[in-house]
Structures are given as structure tokens and as C-alpha cells.
Amino acid sequence: MKRLAACVIVGLFLLATWGAVTPARGVSTITYTSTADFDNGTKTIYFDNGSWSSVANIQIKVADPGAASYNEFVFLIGGYSNDSNTDVRDENQRYNATADSWAQMDPMTTARWGSAVARWTDRIYSFGGRESAGVESVKNEYYNITTDTWGVGADVPASMAGQGGCAFVYNFVVYYYWGVTGGGVTTDIRSYNPNTDLWTNLADPPRQMGSWAVCGIVGTNLYVVGGSVLNGLVLRYNLDTNVWTDSYDVTPVSFVAFGMGRENPVFDDRIYVGFGLRSITTGPFYNKLYAYNPIEKEWNRKPHAIYERDGVAVGIVGTTFYFMGGRETLSSPQGLVHNEAFNTSTEIEQGTNGVETSSDHPSVASGVFQLGSMRTNDSFTNPVGVLHNFSWYTQTQGPETFTRDVTGGVLRLGVEEGIAYPGIMSATVNGQITGNFDFSVKTDWVSGNVMRINVQNDDIPDYNAEGWTTNDGVIYHLTGSSAGAFTLSNHSLTQCGTNTAYTDPEYFRIRRVGNEYTWFLSNDGSAWTQDEQCTHWFTGDVYVSLSVIDTVQGTETRANFDDFEFDVVSYVSEFRDSGSWVSPVQTFNGEVVKTIEVTFDPGPFDPAIRRIDEIALVSNNTGETLHSICPCTATQLGDNLATMTISEQALAGLFGVDWFVRVTLFGDGTNTVSVSNIEINTVRSLITIATSDAPMLFVFVGILAAGLVGAAWIRNKRGGGR
After folding, report:
1. Residues spanned by the domain of 406
2. Is residue 358 in a domain?
3. Distance CA 323, CA 321 (A)
């Protein structure tokens, strides 16, 4: 009996030793909650909507050259350097995009600027242009790339002599489109057959567009964009049927220009329309770039280039456009050496994955990752001359109001002190508008009471002593410290949401998409924050205007406005639709994932449409998604919790797997969604228990059994008894 008791004591000791080890199902925690944590994961890459870079400068500065591409080369033909009358160039400057270097090739036979240039096989044709003061050229010269020599073809038709045309090749025939002759405005198009050296007259365009338009070929159609007539139109010409379509489309209202890159700047069926000049007397010069999809009639704003200029030439090598030369002043203009490359390969379409942290962009708060902003910004500071291109309306009822241009292109609207409600000064931007639009402006409160951004269905001021005079519209009501969004129906105002505090100066923006209006604020004109959003339907075309109103007798109300931007374009969201974050890979250590908890903030206003789109556990061995949940929508403003729990039955399948977690966010295009904490709880798997913890139990049971067997054997040996 004593021996039996000793065996039991030994067994109990072993049992206590085994019980002291880590519990078989003990939980461990992995937490990601800081910017450093999220940076250690993999964020789907953020790209700008295309990217600019400065490359090797032109060796001889030129304005109004022509250009053509061949393999890795762009040939820059002619132009003028210091004076368009006396310093006309004949140079043929070749840029090697691979080596980022320049070389001087055989020069043109006749020096010219503003010629139309296009490549046909291994020849580069140069049509027309201007040779000197008052001498419009009819020259047709071609450069043989293979032999580095020039030849001469049949003169262009006399009616097409001059500068600012464009040339292109379609089905091995060279076409020449041109818009000015004899000091007057006309428009013509001809085809030229290099094999026969003959010109053929084609159908006359339906309207005058002027010179310095952009010619782009997409499919079987030529699209003529802009021109010196400044009508803001796009014409379409079917090259197979010889038929024109008048007023096929319109350019963005803020980009009515000429002097852009003319030489068929097309990539992926988009016409890249960039740079240019608004007015030959007042400017401004642009550094804007749009990718125009003529099939869908969509204008997609790209990042601004570095230098504002017109008279540029453009060539394309691979996926990169090169915008070369040009001028940047109207008084005594001279050529430029600028050579800017726009790489389209970094472009993304709306909805492409992308998330950011504060390491990627300072507007993102520390300790979170969130959907990356597209940050498409197209604001600009207007020189004084541009302000006069708007249709400024002055109301004279009551005491007279005033308008003044202030240094730096700022416009000041004001109401003299006197009677309350003396009337308003309204500056109607570019007349009535049809369809979707996006308008923004910078304001700086000077003194007084109220300023407004108005969207209304007539062009009279929205308020006077008699009350609201506009039937329908939407308004941004600004006091210099708070902003309120309002809808206007049948002379009655209804506030959309509540007032928002701001600090002057501030940028404000109203966007219309269908019958949905969205109000935005920004302190820099680049990173926009949605203020309010309301649905409001009213019929008819609309007018966008700026106004100031004196609502208190004896005060003087003044406000400065700057950085006007108005676009009638298809809406491109400020924020992406989706983006993913992937955790660091976890090597299997005997534990498997039991739960994943993600804390997320859907941002302001209607949080249900910004969500966690997926929480996924992914095998690093195979790339297979092992388990996933969501979409998970928010239930409140601020922090929300989305939790994925893996069932007991599924845990065994995770044994031996190296894994990572992927969290995908989804937005509605008007705001972002942020993740501030990810907590992953793991447990020891049953297989781990069976292969590591169980042997200790087996040892204890074995020793106990051996003790009992030994005690029984001894007892039997002695013949039984107690």
C-alpha cells in the first residue's frame, strides 16, 4: 500500500508540472495601430494621374516649332528664337528620349515657324508656316530620316499659306488642316499623297475654328479641338466618308484656348490637349493638360505642367509625351528651351486600388491608413486681364456698387455703406451652363456681412430689397468665419446641414452631378473636404455667380475673390473607390488566427456608403484567400468595429500556413474612410496541442499506470493482503 501511495504522489507531481505549462488554447495578440505599423505593411501604390518631369533642355530656344516622332526620337523643326520677324530658325533638332540628349540634324531648306509637321514612313513633312514679317509660306519640304537630307514636294495650296495649321497621317496619306489666310479667318483641309506629289481638296469644315488648333485622330475620325477663334468647340471629321460633324463637343469652360500641342497628341484613344493661350492681347498662358476621350466626350484633368506657355510642339515616345519650346510672354516674345515629359504610364483609372498614410501625404492623420485622394487640382491665379473675360454684372438699384481689380489678379466685389439691402454685385461666370459642372473660387473677407457663391436658373442677382428674386438654385452663404449650404426653391431658402466654421482666406467649391449638389471647403485649393451634400432639382440652364450683400445699414461689405475655376466635365472623384492594405507576413509558429478586429471611421455624412469592403486572411504559401468577411458598413459616425471570427471547425485547416491579413476599403467618391486599429487574436491549434502538449500527459499517464502495475505485481508476489 505504501508503494502504491508513493506512485500516486509521483504521478500528482508530474501532473502539477504539466499543468504549469502554457494553456493549450492560450490567446496571443498582434496589433497594428500606428503609422509605422501601417508603413510596415504593403499599401497598394498611390499614383498621381500621370506625372511630369523636366528633361534635357532644347539646345536652341524656339517658339512655335513643329515636331514629329520616330522610334526613340522626337524631331523639333523650325520656330523662332528672339523675334518672329527677324530670327526665324531652320534648325532640325533631334531629341533622343532614351539617352535624354540632343543632336543637330540637317536643317530645313527654308527657315519657318508655325509650320504643320507630320511623319510619313521615314519622311517628316513640314507644310506652310511663316518665313518672315508678312511672308506666309506655301513651302512643302520633307526630311528623310534615313539619309539626313531634305527634299521638296508640291507647294501647299495658296489658300492654305501661313502658320498654325496641323498635319497628320491616316492610311498612308498626309492630311493638312489649317485655319487662317490673308489676315482673315477661314478653315480648310486637304490631303497630300507623297507617292504622287498631288494635293486633293476635301469637304470644307462647317465652321471657322481659326489657327493653332489641336488635331487628334481616334479611330476613323479627326477631332479638331480649340483654335484662335476661341469658340470652345470640338469638330469631328470622318476620314473615310469625308463628312464633318459640327459642334461635336465643347472644351472645358476654363480651357478655351489656342496654341496648344498640335501634332496628333493621341495615346490610348485619348487626345492630350495641353498648354495654350486664352487671349492674344491679355493672356493668360496655360500649363493645364487634359486627356480627352472623344468617344465618351469626357475631359479628364491631369496634373499641371511646370511652365505656362503656348506655341509648344509635342512628340510621343512610348507612353511619354514631350512638350517642347513655346513662349511665355506677349510683349516681345522669345522662344523657350523647356522640354517637359508627361508620363502616361503612371495613370490610374477611377477605382484602382490605393491607400495612403501620413508618410505618403501630410493630409492623412497619423496613426491611420485611408483611401488615397486623387487630388486633381486645377486652380490658378488669374492675371488681371483674365478677369475682364468674365461677364461681370453690376446692379445699380439702390446705392451704387463697385468692382475693382486688385494687384495679383484678385477681383474685389463691394457694396458701399448705406441702406441695408442696397443690392448686390454679381459676377456671372461665362454665362449659362448646361449639365454637370465643378466650380471653385478662393475668397478673402475684407469687411462687412455676407458674400455668396450662387448657382441659379436666371442671371439676375439672387437678393435685393424686395427679397429673393431667383426661383430656384443652390447657394454657398459665407460670412468670413462660417459657411452655410442652402437650396433655393420658389424664392424660399432651405439649409442643407449646418454651418461650418472656417478661417479666411479659404477655397470654396460647388459641384453638380445630375440633381446632386456637393459643397466643399479647402485651405489650399488642393485637398478638399466635403461640407454638405443635398439633392435638389430645378429645370433649365443655370448661371454661376459671385456676390456680396450688405445686410446691415451703415456697413460696408467687401470681399476679394481669386483662383476662379469652372469646368463642365465628367466628374472624376476626389477619392478613389477602393484601396487595400496588406499586413506583414506571419510565419506559422504553432498558433492560428481566431479573430481579426478592424476599427474604422467612415468619415462624415452618410457613413453607410463608405465601408470596409473586405477583411481577408490570405495564405502566403499559395496566395489563396482562406477566410473573408464584409462588406461591413458603419453604424455610426466615428469609430466602428468590423470583426471576423474563424470557426472551431476551420481552425485545423490553418495549421502550418504562413499568412497575412488584407483589409480593403471602399468609398463613394466624395470622401474617404480610415482605419486606426487592427487587432489579430491567435490561439494554439489542436494539432499543436496534439504534437507538443499531449506528450507530457502521456508521460504522466504512463508513469501512473506503471506505478499501479508495479504495486499490483509486488502485492501478488507477497501473496496478497493489506
Report:
1. 384-567
2. no
3. 6
Of the candidates 190, 273, 205, the one whose C-alpha atom is nearest the C-alpha of residue 237 is 205
CA angle 493, 494, 495 (to 5 degrees): 120
Q: Mark whether 527 and 605 lie in a shared domain.
A: no
Question: Which has the minimum average pLDDT: 284-293, 466-475, 562-571, 603-612?
Answer: 562-571
Q: Are residues 303 and 287 in the same domain?
A: yes
Dist. CA 270–CA 291, nearest whole Å: 6
Q: CA dihedral defined by 143, 146, 149, 152, rounded to 10 degrees?
A: -40
Number of domains in the chain: 4
Boundary of a domain, candidates 523, 549, 567: 567
Buried b (16+ CB within 10 A) or exposed e, 540-570: eebbbbbbbbbeeeeeebbbbbbbbbbbbbe
**The pLDDT of residue 334:** 93
Angle between helices 694-717 and 2-19 (to 10 degrees): 180
Given CA atoms 182, 188, 194, 196 in this order, what sign does their dihedral have? Answer: negative
Residue 628 CA from chain centroid, whole number: 31
CATH number for the domain harbouring residue 198 = 2.120.10.80
The structure's pTM equals: 0.57
- Whether 10 and 136 share a structural domain: no
Give the separation between CA 120 and CA 341, rounded to whole angstroms: 24
Please state, in angstroms and rounded to a whole number, the distance separating the CA atoms of residues 262 and 239: 18
- The chain-wide mean pLDDT, for the chain, equals 80
Q: Write down the pLDDT at residue 456.
A: 76
Which phi and psi angles does 145 have, rounded to 5°? -65, -35
Q: What is the pLDDT confidence band of residue 382, given thresholds at 50, 70 and 90?
A: very low
Contact yes or no for 450/478 (Cβ under 8 A): yes
368 lies in a domain? no
